[in-house]
Amino acid sequence: MTPVSSKLYTDDVSLLMVLIDTNPYLWSSMKNTAFTFSKFLSHVLAFLNSILLLNQMNQVVVIATGYNSCDYVFDSSSSSMQRAECLLEKLEEFVDKDETLSQEDSVDGVGFSLLSGSLSMALCYIQRVFRTGPLHPQPRILCLHGSPDGPGQYVAVMNAIFSAQRSMVPIDSCVIGSQHSAFLQQASYITGGVYLKPQVSDGLFQYLSTVFATDLHSRAFLQLPRPVGVDFRASCFCHKNTIDMGYICSVCLSIFCKHHKKCSTCGSNFGEARKQDPSASGQRRKTPDGS
Amino acid sequence: MPQVKIVARNFMDMVASLPAVKLDMLYDNSFICEAILRSLPPLAKKYVLQLLYIDIPISAKSMEESVLPDGFSKHKVAIDRLIQLRVMTETFDRKKEAMYQLNPKFQFNLQKHIVHGGVLPREPMPSNITVRLPSLEELEAYAVEQWECFLLHLISSSEAGKTTNISSSMMKVFQRGLLSQRDEREPPRLTESGFQFLLMDTNAQLWYIIREYITNAEERGVDSADLIAFLLELSFHVTGKAYNTNTLTDIQRSITKDLSDLGLVKLQQGRKESWFIPTKLATNLSISLADTTSRKQGFIVIETNFRLYAYSTSKLHCEILRLFARVEYQLPNLIVGAITKESLYKAFQNGITAEQIISFLQQNAHPRVAERIPSVPENVTDQIRLWESDLNRVEMMPAHLYDEFPSRDVFEAACDFAREYGGLLWEDSKQMRIIVKADILTEMKEILRRQKQ
C-alpha cells in the first residue's frame, strides 16, 4: 500500500539549484565573442521562468559562483521573488562584493571560480529541504560553468560530488566555456546527471529547455545526451597538479605526484622499500573510477 | 453493483471538448495558456518547452527518437493530450509523415510570458489605502466556513444554521444528481453519487461544483468560455490581496458574487469602492487542474478495535462520518464512533464503496497517525473490504429464459449461437431450456425466426 502522502505531490515537481558562473575574468575573456554575459543571462532568465511556469510548485534557487565567493542570489520560494528577473539586483550586489574581495591584481589566464563552494551551498540547501519532512520536490543541481577547473578545489569538489551521489541528487552540467571541464564530467557521470557542452552558444536556451528542463520523472522515458568520454584524471594533494600517474597512500587513498616519507593527510609512514624500486610497488596507475 | 462514479477531475477534458474556435479564443489569454500548460502530463510539458522557439513543423519521427522503449506509451499519451487540447497541431507532409507544430497563439503567449512575465488585468489594492484586510488565517477560516456551510446546505438545508445567498434555483442545479426527491412531502435523500461526493476531498468537490456551474452557464446567459477564462485567471491572483471590483465586467461581478458564497473570494465593502479578495480555494483552482490535492490537516484516528476518533468541531465532518460509522458521542472538539458491520452495510447500500471509505480515512488521517504506514490499521481496511465483498456474492444480470423449443435441432442451434456470442448463462438440455444474457436479445430473435422457417 502506498502512503497517501505520496499522492499529494505530482511526479514532476522539482527543486532546481542553478549555479551560474560569474567569474569576471572568464566573461571579460569572452567579450570579443558574440556570447556576452548579458546574452547568457537573458537565456538563463528565460529558462528559469519557464521552469517556474511548468508547475506552480517548482522551486528554483540560483547560486552565483564568483571568483572569491559564492552566494544565493535567487530563491523562488520567498514570496517577494516570483520571477527570475528579481535576481538581477542581487546578482549585481554580489558581483560588486566579489570584486572588492579581490586582493591580487594580476591573475594568470582566466582564473578559477569557486565551484566547490557553490556546490556545497547547493547541497546544504537540498539537505535542508530534505529535512522539512517527507514531502519535498525532487532536487537536482545544474551547473552553468565556464571557468577552467581549479586544481586547488579538487578535494572539495570530489567530496561534494560524492555527497550528492549519496543523497541521490543528480548534477547536470552545461559547459559554456571553450574547454571541457573534467570536474563536471566526473560530477555528472558519478551522480547520473547530464553533461553537455553546447556546440552553438547562441542557442543556449534551446539546449537548456530541451535537455536540462527535463524533470527527473520524465528522464526515465527519454534518451538524454550521454557523455562521449569522461576525463577521470585526478589532482595530486600536494601541488594540486592534474596527473596521469601518481602515488596513492594505501591507508587513506590520498594522491601525490611525488614520493613522500609521510602521508600529509593521514600521517601514515611510508616504507623505505618503495623508494628503491618505485616502478614495482610505489607507483600505481590511477584507477579509472576516479576515486 | 451499479457503477455510478462522479468524474471529478476531468476539467481539462471539458476544456478539450470545447469547439476548436472557442479553444483558440481561450488561448488569447496568456493565463489560460499557463494553466493549460501546468495541467499537462510531465512529458507533454517538456515537449511544449522544447518546441517553444521552433517555428517550423517538427517531424514526429525526430521526436520519437529520444524516447526510450519503456516510455513509448507515455510519449503517446503526451502527444495525444497536446493534440486534443489543440496546443499542438498535427499535419502531414508530402511523404505522409506526421509533423507537429505548436498552436501559434499558444506559442506566442508563452514566449511572451517567459520573457516579459504575465500581467494581471488588475492591480492589487495599493497599500496606502488604510483598510483592514483579513489575515491569511482568517481568510482560510472564512473559506472553509463558507464551503462547509454550502455543503451542509447542499445535503440538508434544514441542518445548516447559517443561510447562504445562493439562489435556490442555483442550489437545485448543484443538487441535481446528488439528491433525489421521490415525493414532494418527503425530504430529499442523498443519492449514491451524493454520498460519493461527500467523501471526496475539497478540491475534487470544488471542481464538481464548478463544473456544474460552468455547464449551467449557458442557461444563465453567460458564455462558458468566458467563465472558464475568468475562473482560470482568478486562480493566478494572489491570495489575500484585495482587488477592485471596478476592474470586472458586469458578468464577472455577478460571478464573483456566486463565488463568494462558495468561499472562493471574500467580498469587502470599502467606503467608496468594493474589493474582492481571492481565498486559497480560488488560487488552488489551477492546482487541482493537475492531479494534485492541497495538503490539509487530517483529523481522524482509527484504532485496530474499529473505534474512530475524529478531532473536529465541524458539523459537516460529523455528517460525513455518520455515512459509514456509528457515532457514539460527541465532545466539543471530538467525535467518537465505531465502524461496525451494520453501519458499513448501510453505507454500501447507499452506494459508497469500500475503497472510497478507506481512501477518505487515509486522506484525513490525523497527523500523528499519518506518519505511520499504514495510517489506517490493516485489519480495519481488510475487514471493510471483506464486508463489501460479502455483499457482492450474487451478481445480477438481466437475462431471458427460452423454453418450449419446437425441436432439439433448434435448441442446439440456439445454444451454439448463444455460446458463440458469449451470452449463454445456463442450459438444461433435458428440458430444453436456456437462459441468455439480455444484450443479445435481438440476435437471438433473429436466429430463432430463421430456424422456424
UniProtKB/TrEMBL annotation, chain A:
Molecular function as annotated in GO: zinc ion binding
Keywords assigned: DNA damage, DNA repair, Metal-binding, Nucleus, Transcription, Transcription regulation, Zinc, Zinc-finger
Region (Disordered): 271-291
Compartment(s) of residence: Nucleus
Pfam families: Tfb4 (PF03850)
Job of this protein: Component of the general transcription and DNA repair factor IIH (TFIIH) core complex, which is involved in general and transcription-coupled nucleotide excision repair (NER) of damaged DNA and, when complexed to CAK, in RNA transcription by RNA polymerase II. In NER, TFIIH acts by opening DNA around the lesion to allow the excision of the damaged oligonucleotide and its replacement by a new DNA fragment. In transcription, TFIIH has an essential role in transcription initiation.
Family membership: Belongs to the TFB4 family.
Protein name: General transcription and DNA repair factor IIH subunit TFB4
From TrEMBL, chain B:
Alphabetical keyword list: DNA damage, DNA repair, Nucleus, Transcription, Transcription regulation
Function: Component of the general transcription and DNA repair factor IIH (TFIIH) core complex which is involved in general and transcription-coupled nucleotide excision repair (NER) of damaged DNA.
Similarity comment: Belongs to the TFB2 family.
Subcellular location, principal: nucleus
GO BP of this protein: nucleotide-excision repair
Stored Pfam families: Tfb2 (PF03849), Tfb2_C (PF18307)
Keyword Lyase carried by entry: no
Protein name: RNA polymerase II transcription factor B subunit 2
Alphabetized InterPro entries for the sequence: Tfb2_C, TFIIH_p52/Tfb2
Gene from which the chain derives: LOC107781205
GO CC term, one of those recorded: transcription factor TFIIH holo complex
Domain Transcription factor Tfb2 C-terminal stretches: 382-446
Locations listed in the record: Nucleus
PANTHER family xref list: GENERAL TRANSCRIPTION FACTOR IIH SUBUNIT 4 (PTHR13152:SF0), TFIIH, POLYPEPTIDE 4 (PTHR13152)
A GO MF term: ATPase activator activity
Classification via Gene3D superfamilies: 3.30.70.2610
Gene source species: Nicotiana tabacum (Common tobacco)
